[in-house]
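Pasting two entries for a bug report.
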Amino acid sequence: MEHAVQVELLQKLMKQLDDGVNVDAGVMLKNKASAYTCPDMAKREWETFFRTHPQIIGLSGDLPEPGNFITVEDFGVPVLATRDKEGTFRAFHNACRHRGAMVTTEKRGKQAKFTCPFHGWTFGSDGALIAVPMEDHFGSIDKSCHGLIELPAVEKYGFLWVHPDPKGEIDAEALLGGLAPEFDSWGFDQMVNKDGATYAMDLNWKLAIDTFGETYHFKRLHKNTLAEGFYGDVQCYDIFERNHRMILCVKSIDDIRGTPTDNWKMSNGGFPVYYLFPNIQLNVGAAGMTMVRVYPDPKDPNRSISQVSFYFRPELLAAEPEKLMQIAHNFGRVIQGEDYAVAETTQRAAQAGLQDYVIYGRNEPALHHYHNTYRSALGLEPLEVFE
């Protein structure tokens, strides 16, 4: 992020604090409560946002060296992602070309070859079929035509994108909607993965996304956790096509008042939170970044799975590993134990069917943007104004 932009955003936060105001969307909107429970809408979302849309599966740091691999199964297609011997990021359908068994069920590791546990067919990290046991018994196989099915894969600005459709296309710049230069400046490509967590919760995936969309709840829900370090009811908010950037206000902003702006940097008083359509939340701090990938349960609109990954700048992780991991896991516990825990009660209430709609306030512009963006992608009319 350019220094001038950092200064501008920090000054906006200071002015909001001084004036006792917050970001203002201008209107309130209402959304049908059934948006969180409707099986038909959930089916359309699954097909539109997950099965036929490029997916971020991690950062470059998840595949730090040739031979590293990760597997994911979050969006309906089992994926084996590798860094081949040339250092290129590749992605494949994780299914042997013989009888379709997964060639590995490990979440991550390092190996140059993948041998199917069923019959021993072996594939390289470039997906090529390199060995068929007892081929004279099995029959002749043209190995050049029976490698793992390759999926479109792009590595850019530190992100790993995969398209679930072998014929799909990935345009990173278009997907980022103008955020590419800013993301490039954060150095996401240098961050390393260090642990993570999976939260399978009884709440709709959009409801999970909603919990990241405002600071109105900080003084109430997070009064003994995040509110100790953050000012609630204050934020900067900017839209980048289908994505957005929120800047939360850290209480340390008071320490830079009256100091030369030439020395200001975002971490002095701001905490960027980015949303990438349709399901990614990025929480960027001085030491690294927490990525939250939220997925529906394709069989139940009332459940979702959040994959939380912690990334750090390697020099800082080497200096204070225990401290940074404690901060990261404490943040994860807030997400699961406070935000998601309350959202589960919202889900149970929505399932009762008595409440016609929920209300998104003027101070909750991210929720306006989330849901109108979803609706636009599904060919639906924008949300109604609440009056």
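Entry 2 (this is the one that rendered wrong in the viewer):
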Amino acid sequence: MSDSPLAGLRVIDQTQALAGPYCAMMLGDLGADVIKIERPGVGDQSRQWGPPYIQDQSTYYLAANRNKRGIGLNIASDEGREIIHKLVDGADIFLTNLATRQSLKKYQIDYDTLSARNPRLIYASISGYGRTGPRADQPGYDLVAQAESGTMSLTGEVDGAPMRFLSPMADLTCGMFTLIGILAALNARHRTGKGQFIDQSLQEGQVTWLDNYAGEYFATGEVPQRMGNRHPQIAPYEAVQGSDGDWFILGVGSDNVFRSFCTLVNRDDLATDSRFAENAKRVANYDALMPTIRDIIKTRTVEDWLSTLREAGVPAGRINTIDSALNDEHLQERGIIIELEHPALGLIKSIATPVHLSDTALVYRRHPPRLGEHTDEVLAAIGYTDSQIGALRQQSVIA
């Protein structure tokens, strides 16, 4: 633990749902001491997001909250605010996703208040639209961000309805960008000795997924349209079907790879054809090229193609179901699945933070906490006696 990348840092995680908890979990995986604050009797809203459940714990909550100590704390009470202030006084990072600036000030956990107490504090705010601008105090969720970002307009079949990405990509992306901001702020603090405010929004994080589509729009003024599995700038680069009816991805991402593919299938004439010799021409002549490619692929099974293409250096991959992906031998050998013993639920599994450092390894040491599991431990460490803790619990300040 002592040689983990963020060992010695303390994080106060006053977030719920996914973007904030996911960011805080990664900080915990990197070795920080993360204290998760939840409302007594209610907890993180994701505790109710199910089914499925393992006993009374939602799998949604369990997936994003390992490597944390959990306390139940009513920050609406004077005593609760005093506790959170004491915790922040000794912290390096504070995470919150309260919806409005007014609510942050009401509970005295806004940046001005906390940074005045602890100038070295790195304060990370997660919200739907950020803390500035005309929509700053509007609530936001992952699905809304996917819709408003433009990404849903590009997802789905060409003639079908807009489709969300099944995983909560706006939440996960926002969590990752928040982590990047925190790590950058930590490095800046090494030079300046001061913390700073990080203002992260679901909407902006999701817009980054437009990337090459935005580049296309900026250059041409034309609005990119839904293309299904077809790639707008690379060909052939999409899902294709083998003779057994199964599908896989053929990823011909360069002219050299295209020539290798043509040689493999005994069609060097395609590589020398002026319509297909260069990627831009293959894209322009997509309708002439792809029927031939699909006919070639339908001559063999997917398994045959995968082994043959990989041997020839042509990127290709099976379209796995979730069970196939999570049981992939290569991923398992690299440690993608984490197993932790939970005192009530037994062995629980989750996906690792996929960062591999040679000298300062990530450590998976704590199960997702039960509501208020570490309240007494955490409060005792900041000076509260057993009798004080008991009195606070009787007043419903803590759980």
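Dev reply: Rendering is fixed now. As a check, the viewer should reflect this: The two ends are 28 Å apart (CA to CA).
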